Amino acid sequence: MRVVAAMSGGVDSAVAAARMLEAGHEVVGVHLALSQNAATLRESARGCCTIEDAADARRVADMLRIPFYVWDMAARFKNDVVENFIAEYSAGRTPNPCLRCNETIKFAALLDKALALGFDAVATGHYAQIVVRASGARELHRAVDMGKDQSYVLGVLNEDQLARSFFPLGDTAKPQIREEAAARGFYVAAKPDSHDICFIPDGNTSKWLTDRLGEQSGDIVDADGTKVGEHGGAYAFTVGQRRGLHLSEPAAGGEPRYVVEVQPRTNTVVVGTGELLGVDAITGDHARWCGPAPEGVVSVGAQVRAHGEEIPATAWADGEQVEVRLQRRIRGVAPGQSVVLYDGTRVVGSATIARATTSRAATGTAIAGTATSGTATTGTAVTSRAATDGPPAAG
């Protein structure tokens, strides 16, 4: 097969390209230029996509003796990922830009361009596995190395995209990948992994957002509406956040307080104690299935963070919407995050969290995020029929 190997300049994509070549494929290396003003050098292990990274990718391609190109997708990345990131935070939601990039750039724009140029597939250095069944169906599964598993951020891929994707590293642990890179003589064998959000290299999301959205002073209030502090922009907060609140009034009992609600329309941040964060019912929009959509109520594992715990749950689909009921409550679930569903190690699909609340069967009171008409609000348990009713009746 003719395969485009996406080469970021890191150790993982370098070994992935080498493995594809050794498997007998005709491989061309491609580095994606995603920044319109790329830095020359990496300043730390944070971020990527610098001129240095492109040079590292080219060096590996030269060693492999494969053609190498840089494809400029900076404008598309800015429109589809960066601007979306800003818009989501402005609306009180907490997006995952890595999922957005995989959905719109690496397995849409990149794959579409590769197919248009006559290539058959794209290979990346993601830690995940493609399992091919006897029927020929291709399934997305977790990586062997659970510490590096990236199947969560690939949960947006559909059947057609999986049919033209390769993840050559999924059966190997990260330490062995570095050893293999060193044995191949790759300069990047010991190169640090990139972390956090690639377009915020210093990791300070709040400052980055403030630089683009400006100061927007507002109140921080507790659950009964009492003012307990001020902030410079509700967009910089997310449900479950504890640090950086700078509250002027301590809780009556001295308990730590967390963000339990973001109200972008009034530019208000609501804080409360940890018990107000527990949720066990999730409604997701923009459902994406890695295979056929599940029929009826199914038992799944649900994961709401890239390296979060998988929680036993039941789920059912209704068009573009997905309902998920967790077997126990979890904290800090924010609108805009993604819930990815698993059947064992197989990725079933994903959805963007629109609401998270407590189910009718749950006891006590909880405040949880709700995203409706571009707003994130919260309320007590049993806030809406969609979020509280059980699965559809059989038959």
Overview of the molecule:
- The protein has helices at 11-22, 51-64, 74-90, 97-116, 159-162, 174-183, 205-213, 385-388, and strands spanning 2-6, 26-33, 68-72, 121-123, 129-132, 138-141, 165-166, 218-222, 227-231, 257-263, 268-273, 279-289, 298-303, 311-318, 321-330, 338-343, 346-357, 368-372, 375-379.
- The protein is of the alpha/beta class and 395 residues long.
- The chain has a six-stranded antiparallel beta barrel with strand order 12-15-14-13-16-17. A five-stranded parallel sheet has the order 3-2-1-4-7, with helices on both faces.
- A hairpin with a 5-residue loop joins β5 (129-132) and β6.
- α3 packs antiparallel against α4.
- It starts with a strand and ends in a 7-residue tail after the last helix.
- 44% of the residues are buried.
What keywords describe this structure?
alpha/beta; Rossmann fold; SH3 type barrels; Elongation Factor Tu (Ef-tu), domain 3; five-stranded parallel sheet; 8 helices
